[in-house]
Amino acid sequence: MKINLLTKNFSDEVILYSPELELSESPNVAEKCFPAIGMLKNQPENNRIFFLLNSEIGEYDDFKKHPQKGIYYEALGGKEEIEKILNNKYKQF
């Protein structure tokens, strides 16, 4: 599974999401969305799992590769654990 990383200028939050897990609409808005994990750059162990709206992605810089991606992967238990979290959120909808 491909996992992209989103960052935003002047924000401490990093978001991981998989473009492969696109849903036709979110639970609250009739817009495409993706299961995602948001975390603070300096506290990756504090994270939240949510649905990221397609329109919100444009507010961020989208990276397929990022030099710090491994740090966030490690904080969440590795790529397999991230895939499991995102798949569970996807199936929840």
Word description of this protein:
With 93 residues, the chain is an alpha+beta fold. It has one domain. It contains three helices and five strands; from the N terminus they run E-E-E-E-H-E-H-H. The two termini are 19 Å apart. The model has no long low-confidence stretch (mean pLDDT 93).
Relevant terms:
single chain; globular; 93 residues; 33% strand; 5-stranded antiparallel sheet; alpha+beta
The tally of strands reads 5
- Distance separating the two termini: 19 Å
Overall spatial form: globular
Strand order of the largest sheet: 4-3-2-1-5
- Which structural category do the helix and sheet elements fall into? alpha+beta
Radius of gyration: 12 Å
Largest sheet: 5 strands, antiparallel
Percentage of β-strand residues: 25-35%
Order of SSEs: EEEEHEHH
Output the number of helix runs.
Answer: 3
What helical percentage do the residues reach? 25-40%
